[in-house]
C-alpha cells in the first residue's frame, strides 16, 4: 500500500509538473486541454493526501531529523497548490508576484527536492503493478481529480481564459526577469518611419504567463509588409529588443504578426514597448518582444532557441 501510494504520488506530481510547464508553452488555441488536465492532476492529489500523510507520520517518527527534506517537499507542494487554487479562484497579485507566479515558483523549487527525495528511497516497481486492480486504482485517483476540478469550476473557479489567465482591462507593464524599461530606444523602427508604411490593426489578447490577459486594439505595420522579400535560404526571423531579449519566429509563421506603434489608438507608452513592439496573436506574452530594435532574417531554424526564454 505504501509503495503504491508513493508511486501514484510521484506519477501525479510528474503529470502536474509536465502539464504545468506545457501550459506555458502551447499557444492559446491548444491551451484548454493542457490547462484542464493540469488542474485535474493537481486535484487528484486530494485522493492521496490521507494515505500519504499516514506514511509521512510514520516516516518522521522513524527517521527524525533525516526526514526534513521530505517535510520540506510536502510544504512546498501544499503551498504551491494553495497558490494555484488562489489564482484559479481569481486572486491577482500577492506581494511582488501574482498568485500564479508564486504557484509556479514554488512548484519549480519543489522539483529538485522531489528528485532528491525519490533518489534517496527509489520506489521499486513490481510485475504486479500493471494488473487490472492497479489500473482501476489509478483510474479512481484520476476520477477524483476530474470530479474535484468540475466541482471547483462550478463553485470557486473564477472566469478565465483557456490558458487559465485572469482578465485585465489593460496590459500590466511587465518586462522579462530583471529587464527594465529603456527610455531612449535607438532603433530604425521609429514611429515616423513605421507611420509612413501601410497600416494594419488587430484586436487580440496579450496573455502573460504570469496569469493575466488583456484584449486591446493594436495598430502598426504587418511583418509581411515590413519584410516583403526574405533573402533566399531564410528559415527564421529573429526579433530583438533594446534590452537584449529576442525571440525567433519561423519564416512561414509571420502572417498576422504586427510591429505595433499604437495600443487602443494611442501611441505606445515606454512601458508597453515604445516606439514599437511585437503583437503576435495567439502566442503567449513572451513572444511579444518590446522595444524592438532589429528584425533579422536568419538561416537558423525557428527551434534554435530555448522553448521558453531563460535570460
Ligand atoms: C507540484 C506540481 C504542481 C501541482 C501539484 C500543481 C497544481 C495546481 C492546481 C491545484 C492548480 C489550480 C487548479 C486549477 O487550475 O484547476 C494549478 C493551476 C495552475 N498551474 Fe499548477 N501545479 C504544479 C506545477 C505547475 C508548474 C510547474 C506550472 C508552470 C510552469 C504550473 C502552472 C499552472 C497554471 C498556468 C495554472 C492556472 C490554471 C488555471 O487557472 O486553470 N503548475 N496548479
Strand content: 15-25%
Domains counted in the coordinates: how many? Answer: 2
Q: Would you count the extended β strands for me? A: 11
Give the count of helical stretches.
8
Main β-sheet description:
6 strands, mixed
Key descriptive features of the protein:
311 residues, alpha+beta, Sulfite Oxidase, Chain A, domain 2, six-stranded mixed sheet, three-stranded antiparallel sheet, binds protoporphyrin IX containing FE
Describe the protein.
The structure is a single chain. This protein has 311 residues and is of the alpha+beta class. The protein folds into 2 domains: 2-165, no CATH class; 168-298, Oxidoreductase, molybdopterin-binding domain (Sulfite Oxidase, Chain A, domain 2), CATH 3.90.420.10. The protein contains 8 helices and 11 strands. The chain has helices spanning 2-25, 28-44, 46-63, 68-88, 99-120, 132-155, 191-195, 223-226, and strands at residues 93-94, 97-98, 166-167, 200-208, 212-222, 236-241, 246-250, 258-263, 266-267, 277-279, 292-298. Strands 3, 4, 5, 8, 9 and 10 form a 6-stranded mixed sheet that branches. It has a 3-stranded antiparallel sheet with strand order 7-6-11, with no helix packed on it. Strands 1-2 form a two-stranded antiparallel ribbon. The protein starts with a helix and ends in a 13-residue tail after the last strand. The structure holds protoporphyrin IX containing FE (HEM). Protoporphyrin IX containing FE binds next to helix 1, helix 2, helix 4, helix 5 and helix 6.
